Amino acid sequence: MIRLEKLSTSIFPPLTSNLNYKQMNKTKLFFVAIISAATLFVACDNATNNNNNEAKDTKAPKSCDNVHWSHKPGTDGPKQWKDLCTDFAACGGEMQSPVNIDKSTVVAEAALALPQFHYGNSTVDVVNNGHTVQFNVNGDNTVELEGKKYKLLQFHYHAKSEHTIDGQYYPLEVHFVHKHSDTDFAVLGIMFVEGKENPLFTKYLNHFPKKKGKFTSDDTIDLLSLFPEQKTFYHYDGSLTTPPCSEVVNWFVLTQPVEASKAQLDAFAAILHSNYRPIMPLGKRKVYMSAGK
Length: 293
Ligand SMILES: [Zn+2]
Known about the structure:
- This protein has 293 residues and is mainly beta.
- The protein has helices at 81-84, 199-204, 262-272; strands spanning 100-101, 107-108, 116-118, 121-128, 133-137, 142-145, 148-158, 164-165, 172-181, 184-194, 213-222, 233-238, 249-254, 258-260, 288-289.
- The protein folds into two domains: 4-57, no CATH class; 93-290, Carbonic Anhydrase II.
- 7% of the residues lie in helices and 29% in strands.
- The strands form two sheets. Strands 2, 3, 4, 5, 6, 7, 9, 10, 11, 12, 13, 14 and 15 form a 13-stranded mixed beta sheet that branches. A two-stranded parallel sheet has the order 1-8.
- The protein starts with 80 loop residues before the first helix and ends with a strand.
- Bound molecules: zinc ion.
């Protein structure tokens, strides 16, 4: 997840409001994304300590190597990501994620077919990279979306949710990250609500690395069992929600949430430390909804 550009200031709307999109600033620069698959979602793994201060007043490219970023407001928080280093500049772009999904403005699109899953069973490595708990999968698990095949790379969690629906947060959101090419990713987002115990969490929660670290298991997961029964989705074009915020993601947020118990959601939230990015302006984009059930 790498992208190059530069940019100027940006004004973020209030977290829970979708009313202020029109106020967002219109400054802009566009640029060409250069993606390195090898660094996708790994960039932040390298985060150790900040070395970004020294380059602050120069126009020379500021390397993102070892640049520390955080979900917490502050000098390395979400509003500052775009200025931390050259390759994070996309974080100030106009097609950023997450967004609020306003159901009253969603466009029903009959041509948007339901995803066709070709998932199997996979062993997983559970990795806490300091920003999320991520399940790295193996094998050839793919999904067909908009006529294209995307391969599942990993899934990971955010607490609270990153997307909101009609301004409402959910306690947890999982992102299934798929790749078609270096400039074409599909992320399927699933919301959680409080309810019955989630079998996957029961299996792994006690093993989730609470700090940076990895848990490897020989157990296999039936990947599709992690999805809700109904596969209808909201769709829009957006970005990675963590630096470098590359605008290469086709987002598919499923309309039906899945359940986890309150104790499980609380346990997860305690590990994840509010690792959600604030809502970004939808701008000129539209959110579509799939047909079918
Ligand atoms: Zn995510």
